[in-house]
Amino acid sequence: MFADTNESETVFAPVIQAGVEALKAAECSGKLFIFHSSIPTAEAPGKLKNRDDKKLINTEKEKTLFQPQKAVYEQLSKDCVSQGCSVDLFLFPSQYVDIATMGDVATHTGGSVFKYSNFQVERDGQHFLSDLKKDVEKAIGFDAIMRVRTSTGFRATDFFGAIHMNNTTDVEMAAVDCDKAVTVEFKHDDTLSEETGALLQCALLYTTISGQRRLRIHNLSLNCSAQLSELYKSCETDALVNFFAKSAYRAMLNQPLKTVKEILVNQAAHMLACYRKNCASPSAASQLILPDAMKVFPVYLNSLLKTGPLVGSAELSTDDRAHQRLSTTAMGVEDTQLLLYPRLIPLHNMDVASDVVPTPVRCSEERLTDAGMFLLENGCSLFLWLGQACPPEMIQSIFNVPSLAHVPVDLRSLPELDNPQSQKLRSIIDSLLDQRPSSMKSMFQNGF
């Protein structure tokens, strides 16, 4: 359509505005799929300026790199939510595009942001098509409003997710799909009864894709205890880390990264010190004492501190950091758990006759073996790690080449070979991909 155009500048906000008006004219909710590759520079509403300044990293002003440029985009998000218009953004940038601003519209409307840097059809085409297919096919509801109610003694005080809020109680979502999660923070501000427990109700009013208005209600009764040891015993560490990640990623918009990381460390130290003081048996001051339910909590926290948004390194692009920050905001507990502690699956001793995925091992370099083959996945990327002494017969059965040295360095997918090892490995990968909200980028790595 535009093959012969000489126009080199692009617009972004007016395209979404046109989509909102179209849905308004049709008197229905819906979703916009936006495919974009550059920062909008045309003289039109939503024009953005390049503000990617590496000099701001590790300074008090670093937070401004992740703050969306307000004006048009803030109002645009509100218009989308009021119309029930969700925005899914597929980006194909070769340079800075200000994802912090452009992606903010998608995040506040219950949408998703997909990013394919320096897109090449041969390398990224299948990845993009898989993401688009999943996005179109996923279960979804539109024009949603959620409210959380509690019994006496505690209350919902904050909400984290791909949401919009005009007040302190109603969580509005232009769309809500099966891959999004809302994290709720509760404040305990009065006495709770051990007899009656704590009661929660989450009510979600939404419109189905067929136009039916429905109400979905979840009721939950939780036990209460006056014993602090019982609290630590029942702690849901994965859910706790999900909350820590989302709260930290929100805080980095208003506070220096150094302060955000210090708060995370101090909160964790306070929690564990409280357990040591009130619940644990006396022990040497140098001994680390952890509740059984929180054994991996320090590992999770250390991983969170090393994620792209919190690292503060000039080696990472601002857009990549902003993209991970926005993506994590809508993640569920399982997704953040996997992101912060990837699954390491040994493949060299897999049972080709079994239908199940091999049992993962501890994600540590110590588990890697020179003659082994491992699959590492974190929900975003999929690594196939090959030891230098990996048996030639295994290499032949998987890659159809005689040795590790002959495996192509730019390989992005496995060849489809008619042997048990190849079929088993490809079925494992397909199984993992089916479980994830988006298609994972595949990479192959020679070890040692």
TrEMBL record:
It comes from the Eukaryota. GO terms for molecular function: SNARE binding; zinc ion binding. It is a peripheral membrane protein. GO terms for cellular component: COPII vesicle coat; endoplasmic reticulum exit site; endoplasmic reticulum membrane. Its main location: membrane. The keyword DNA-binding does not apply. It holds the Pfam family Sec23_trunk. Residues 1-136 form the Sec23/Sec24 trunk domain. Residues 237-336 form the Sec23/Sec24 helical domain. Keywords: Cytoplasmic vesicle. Residues 141-225 form the Sec23/Sec24 beta-sandwich domain. SUPFAM superfamilies: beta-sandwich domain of Sec23/24 (SSF81995), C-terminal, gelsolin-like domain of Sec23/24 (SSF82754), Helical domain of Sec23/24 (SSF81811), vWA-like (SSF53300). One of its GO terms (biological process) is intracellular protein transport. Residues 356-429 form the Gelsolin-like domain. It is found in: Cytoplasmic vesicle, COPII-coated vesicle membrane; Endoplasmic reticulum membrane. This is Sec23/Sec24 trunk domain-containing protein. It comes from Oncorhynchus mykiss (Rainbow trout).
